[in-house]
Design a protein that fits this description.
Helices cover about 20% and strands about 35% of the residues. The protein is built from 3 helices and 8 strands. Strands 1, 2, 3, 4, 5, 6, 7 and 8 form an 8-stranded mixed sheet that branches. A hairpin with a 5-residue loop joins strand 6 and strand 7. Helix 1 packs across helix 2. The radius of gyration is 15 Å and the shape is globular.
Length: about 160
Amino acid sequence: MKTATTTSNHVTRSVEETIALGEQLASSLPSGTVVALSGDLGAGKTALTKGIARGLGVTDTITSPTFTLVNEHVARDGRRLYHVDLYRLDKPQQAVEIGIEEELAPDGWTIIEWAEKLGDVLPADAVRIHIEIVGEKERQIRVTEGRRQKEEGIYR
């Protein structure tokens, strides 16, 4: 299996635009996708997650699971979205000990805030999104999509 990547850059100028970008990105996320979010505290990781969840058909209120570590949501079609927040973890081994690999659902989606804390535990084909604060409300968002190539072709 070969891995190719595609990178796109986006600028948002409000929380609403960040949510809208997430909703737009959701349309290219097949079941089994792991989305790895990184960026400073307050960059907009949860706002982007709200948009992705909305685009996937989740109607629940999305909040950051900082203390519970994982929130599970169900989309309209019954598939699950696992929203993981690793802010409180210090090393990748802690994620393994809490069973993070079980949250990488092949029948739904997993969004991981503070994904850089996973190190090598993060799947190589995860969609990586880095959010950079460039102004009071302006964000530079870089999306790097890993695409797995199999015999039947590329899927996104």
